[in-house]
């Protein structure tokens, strides 16, 4: 069984809690793209774990893997391992594997990221964690692999090859080039490599062999479909491919092995940073969604912009990912809003369309066409089954199902593991 999970919006849909819920049924949970610009929050009873790299299945018996399509900051990785171990969760080499071809985020990537964003007249909204520049080096074949990091001699050879180019790049945009070879930073990375060396793995081989043996694998994505570097709202996107096909390419698993593709989608929509968000609400409804939903980014702490459910964008996500079902999160946040609205189309240049325009500047000009539904006042946070939801909430869920064309498999009514149930 090979299942892929991706976010169907702009990220922050609640993938971490859904993965945590499902991981008990999977032998392996594998992260397939992105870096520590991602943020997953998992709440179990009174414990809250905020993760950026380690897949969300770490709390259960699953083996967790980081595939070669990711970019890895070893400092953050070690911090997460220590944080979990301090909480009583041991992260052994039997528990965690990191592919040897995973690209390493170096200090000069972080420096370049901050310098480049500062020079932009129109900000992208990067987290300034070096993610994009690590991916640039991956494509240019100038990256440092995890297998280099864990071998001091190989690391020093790679740095000697790369350093002149990186020093020139930093100098050209007004930075201090000494960061590339600063001895304290190099020594720190050598130390990090030694600490992480036991975790090196061949992720593609391990996943395929496990599937051959009848085991189950869950592939976990970061960010959301409309932040995809190719298909997202250019240029306000992330640096990797966030859609389901990316799981196959980045983990090294053929598409014929995929059994299920699950969409994670909020009952409304949010976005962090710049870029179009056609249904954004700046009045009372938007404030309600923001405050009740506690809409702040896990990674950056930035306030999220909030709006009504955007069906044209959801339809595009269904096409991009080939979803077979969905998990609907934060349904409880809509309590107290009346009416509840669903954007079912856009008005653009005098025409009504039901699918997003390809051009981002056109999407930014789209005016939502809404369908209104009756809201409900009942608190949903203690609901444990679909039939216990208020009728108006069930009508809303079933309308989303019909418009998306895929069934809702899971519903979440709060941050706790026990607050998510099957429909």
TrEMBL record:
Chain coiled-coil ranges: none
InterPro entries: Adenylosuccin_syn_GTP-bd (IPR018220), Adenylosuccinate_synth_dom1 (IPR042109), Adenylosuccinate_synth_dom2 (IPR042110), Adenylosuccinate_synth_dom3 (IPR042111), Adenylosuccinate_synthetase (IPR001114), P-loop_NTPase (IPR027417)
GO biological process, one term: 'de novo' AMP biosynthetic process
Residues reported to bind Mg(2+): 12, 39
Active site: 12, 40
Gene3D superfamilies according to UniProt: Adenylosuccinate Synthetase, subunit A, domain 1, Adenylosuccinate Synthetase, subunit A, domain 2, Adenylosuccinate Synthetase, subunit A, domain 3
One Pfam family here: Adenylsucc_synt
Signal peptide (from-to): none
Superkingdom assignment: Archaea
EC identifiers of the protein: 6.3.4.4
Pathway of action: Purine metabolism; AMP biosynthesis via de novo pathway; AMP from IMP: step 1/2
Binding site for IMP: 12-15, 37-40, 127, 141, 223, 238, 302
Binding site for substrate: 298-304
GO MF annotations in UniProt: adenylosuccinate synthase activity; GTP binding; magnesium ion binding
Location within or outside the cell: Cytoplasm
Protein purpose: Plays an important role in the de novo pathway of purine nucleotide biosynthesis. Catalyzes the first committed step in the biosynthesis of AMP from IMP.
PANTHER family tied to this protein: ADENYLOSUCCINATE SYNTHETASE (PTHR11846)
Protein name: Adenylosuccinate synthetase
Native organism: Methanohalophilus mahii (strain ATCC 35705 / DSM 5219 / SLP)
Gene: purA
